[in-house]
Structure formats: C-alpha cells, structure tokens
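Appendix B. Raw example, untouched.
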Amino acid sequence: MPEIENATSFKIGPAFTKVSGKLQDISKLILGGAVFNTQYNDDPYNMDIINLLKFAFLHGINTIDTSPYYGPSELLLGNSLNYLINEASYIKRDEFYICTKVGRIKLNDFDYSPAWIQASILRSLERLHTDYLDLVHLHDVEFVEEDKILRALRKLKELKQKGTIRHFGISGYPVDFLYRIALLCANDSTIGPLDSVLSYCNGCLQNTRLFDYYDKFLSNCGIQVVLNASILSMSMLRLQEAKSFHPAPQLLKAAVRELAIDIKRHYNQDLADFATRFALRNWLFKSGSTILGTSTIEELNAALQQFRLVTSDIDSVNRRDEILVKKYRNLLGDHYNEVWESGIPQKTSNSVSIDPRY
C-alpha cells in the first residue's frame, strides 16, 4: 500500500487551500462515490474510505462526487468527511467541493417532483454533514419525461438562488439527449444556462462521442463545466470481466475482452491503464475534469500514475499509445462508438425551436 503521509511528491493541484467556489476550479480528477455501493463492492461499510479521502486530498483532488442512488455512498462519505473535518481537523469544508445528484431513487424508480427534489436535497445535506452543496446534478435525465425534467431544473434553480446549492446541472448517458436538454434550458428564461453536464461512458477508449460535443456544450449552451465519468466504461475496459450489471450488449463486451487479452499478451499492459491514459489525455486537452471510481488507495494511486505519465508528455509513451489506439480502434470495428439503450422515448417539446445546425 502506498504510504499516505509520504506519498505527496506528485500532486495534480493545490492541496488544503480554500477553494474559490467556481466550478472551473474543481480538480482535474474527481473522487467518484459510485463504488461505495454493493454494485461494485460486496461490503461498502468495510471500505477504508477515510484513508482513501486523505490520499485523494493529499494529492490535490479537491472534489467528491456521489448520489443518493449509490446505496450508502452519501452516508459513508458524509461520516468520513465529518470525521476528517470535525474530529481529526484534517481538512476544512471550504477546501473541497461536494457534488451529489437528485431524482433517481432505485433502478426503475424516479421522482423529479419539486417536493421530492427539495426533500432529497435536505436529506443529502444531513447525510453529508454540510449546510450547502457545491453542485447537484439531476440524475439520469433520459429516464424522465422532458416536461418533468424542466420542472425539476426550475426547482434546482430556486434552491440555488436560496444558497442551498451553489450550482446545478444534468447527468445521463445519451450525449445527444443531454445536449438537447442543455440547449432547451439555455433558451428558457425560467431556467437559463445550466452550470454543468455530467456524461458517463462516452469519453473513453470504446466511445468518444462526448469529445465531439464538448465545444457545443460550452458555446451553444453556456455550460461552465462538462464532467467525464466512467472512463473505464463501468468496469468494461479492464482485463477482468465487466461487472454483471453492465448493460452493454454481449458482443460488445466480448470485443473489449478480446482487446484486453491482446494488449496484455503482446504489450504486457493492463487495458485499464491504457484506457485511463487515453481518456485523460483527450479530456485534459479540453480542460475537462474526470470522475474516477476507485475503491482503494492502490487503485487511486494507479490512476494518478497514469495522470502523471499523460501530463509529463513523455514522447515514447505518447507514440506507443497513439499506435495502440489505432490498432485497437480497428480491432473494435463496428463496436467503436457503439452505445446501448438507455432511457425512455421522448416526446419533442414545442417550447423551443432548436437550430438544426446545432
């Protein structure tokens, strides 16, 4: 295990300094809380979250992301952060950002009503032991009707105006739908431009759709930050088999599995490391932040080492990775940029006319 107190020679940014509160100043790597859940770990209550947080903070990670949908994640993170702030005096609340989500309750259970939005936010404040939330995303918007999405976003805007939350936005899988909602909001005076969009599994080695939308989110929708999550595609981009809950078609999983075996056999590389470098290199070029789901200090340290390789701009690593990207994109064939079904059929809103050039 890497030494926590001595492993501070490499940092991705300032540590233990008061944050500005602006979303543009969140760290380039964000500690993701989806892994503090039984989908990823059999017993999340026995995970060493306190030391994982300490390791993250020491290395300049100043942002935590979670959701009520992630099982006990909010509770576990909240209790750990409360200990580090109020008992250990290890860090101050104004030295990091807390991001959470709202609206998704269970796998097939969503509540975007204004009453639930408020109740859920108040519950998150209690669980996370804080009197404000830096950023709240409406969770997995593609599963809810458009009019309910917009109504929920108006409620989040109200909570922002009251100071309960500092920023708000949307999260989900289909990038085109995220873009549509963001553009609708930008043209709706009762909501206005969203602060943030969080996309997952669309900015990775297998799927780069998010990269093509980044500039449009900023210029056409007025988005401040676009967050890239699940750069290992929810466990699919690794040597081990994907988690059982993964919704990708079996043929896609099989193609990625073949890729993982090939890169290990011929180059002695783990697909997870290679895929991490690919996603970070492309997203850092756009000045974006990446949410990392790491369960242990070892996993987080491995991701930090890939970050260091990318930011050090080592020619030999860059050249080798460029060759491998071309090779494995060809190996994926039609599975490159393949997506799986996510969400419900949406009725087109007549409230805003969207320029087809967008």
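End of appendix B.
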